[in-house]
Specification:
The chain is an alpha/beta fold. Helix 4 (111-117) packs across helix 10 (302-314), helix 5 packs parallel to helix 7 (212-224) and helix 7 packs antiparallel against helix 8. 42% of the residues lie in helices and 19% in strands. A 5-stranded mixed beta sheet has the order 3-2-1-4-5, with helices on both faces. Strands 8-7-6-9-10 form a 5-stranded mixed beta sheet, with helices on both faces. The chain folds into 2 domains: 2-116 and 297-333, ATPase, nucleotide binding domain (Nucleotidyltransferase, domain 5); 128-292, 2-Layer Sandwich (Nucleotidyltransferase, domain 5), CATH 3.30.420.40. The two termini are 26 Å apart. Bound molecules: 5'-O-[(R)-(carboxyoxy)(hydroxy)phosphoryl]adenosine and zinc ion.
């Protein structure tokens, strides 16, 4: 079986083809970062227009690199939500029209489920059930994964997502959008002893997160300290240490609560070097194991959509023609219409 995946939920156009026998045949990504950089964040209207521009050439290129033909495809999977409505509609319209023209099924994929499944594209994969920490620009969730499609949210952010906190703090430090990876590099030059940031919501029971206070803490520190390079690096370090520590504390708690010893970490922030080290050490300490996607599949990509679509196709779950794109779509309500 061959499934073409289309990702257009935000500022990346991703296309990939997954083959049930051979694995990933080809994948391509067009990032709109340069387009949005001057505005300091994603401009939804510009994002939609650019997806329209990029989609067809990228599909053509991917089909050719995969050494296959459109008529050899068995299904088209597209991100149906959550994400920016206009951007989602572009991928939805393309995915469903293509499927209709080829008389094959269209499969609506949940973007966060696709992130969660991205580590399955690697050689070494976890066994169900496992814990998943999803950390992206729009979501921060700890999930109990019983089997594909069966997700129970154990905790989530009550305000900003982790990626959002990274991007906002990076902006305060004068780093270009999106600042997640830049802040991580800057933090490497920082002194971990100079500033102490709080570990939000770790002093009370439960597995929810809150990151907006960290951003405010960073703002107050920036305003009350000299604005030299070392100070900015020290603030970046204190921020990253606080985020990583908070995740370690909550993951340790989730492991204790559920007895599960395998942890998947996925979504854009899972590319973060310090977070990867911290969670790796934690899982060693508890005799468990952590699984990450390869770096390029941490952030948005078409491969995870093609793979999630393939799993749906295998179990016969495809969409009727009146399926709607869903800008808001809770992961644990995925199966419901
Ligand atoms: O998963 P993703 O590509 O898009 C969403 O689904 O939201 O995540 C994007 C987020 C951005 O906030 C970006 O700054 C953050 O992931 N990010 C990072 C790193 N690479 C990307 N955050 C921290 N460290 C990184 N290395
Ligand atoms: Zn994403």
């Amino acid at each position: 079986m061959q499934v073409l995946g289309i990702e257009t939920s935000c500022d990346e156009t991703g296309i990939a083809i997954y083959d049930s026998e051979k694995g990933l045949l080809a994948h391509n990504l067009y990032s709109q970062i340069d387009l949005h950089k001057e505005y300091g964040g994603v401009v939804p209207e510009l994002a939609s227009r650019d997806h329209v521009r990029r989609l067809l050439p990228l599909i053509k290129k991917t089909v050719s690199e995969a050494n296959t033909k459109l008529k050899s495809l068995d299904a088209i999977a597209y991100t149906a939500g959550p994400g920016l409505m206009g951007a989602l509609l572009v991928g939805t319209a393309m995915g469903r029209s293509l499927a209709y023209s080829l008389s094959i099924p269209a499969i609506a994929v949940h973007h966060m489920e696709a992130h969660l499944l991205a580590p399955m594209l690697e050689d070494d994969v976890p066994e169900y059930p496992f814990l998943a920490l999803l950390v992206s620009g729009g979501h921060t969730q700890l999930v109990h994964v019983s089997k594909p499609g069966d997700y129970n949210i154990l905790g989530e952010s009550v305000d900003d997502a982790a990626g959002e906190a990274f991007d906002k703090t990076a902006k305060l430090l004068g780093l270009p959008y999106p600042g997640g990876s830049a802040i991580s590099v800057l933090a490497d030059q920082g002194d971990s002893q100079r500033f102490q940031f709080p570990r939000p919501m770790t002093d009370r029971p439960g597995l929810d997160f809150s990151f907006s206070g960290l951003k405010t803490f960073a703002l107050n520190t920036v305003n009350s300290e000299p604005s030299d390079e070392q100070t900015h690096a020290d603030i970046a370090r204190a921020f990253v240490d606080a985020v990583v520590d908070t995740f370690i504390i909550k993951c340790r708690r989730a492991i204790k609560d559920t007895g599960l010893k395998e942890l998947v970490v996925a979504g854009g922030v899972s590319a973060n070097k310090q977070l990867r080290h911290g969670l790796h050490d934690l899982m060693n300490e508890v005799n468990g194991k952590v699984y990450f996607p390869r770096a390029e599949f941490c952030t948005d990509n078409g491969a995870m959509i093609a793979y999630a679509g393939y799993l749906r196709l295998k179990t016969g779950q495809t969409e009727s023609l009146n399926f709607q794109a869903k800008p808001r779509w809770p992961l644990d309500e995925m199966g419901k219409a």
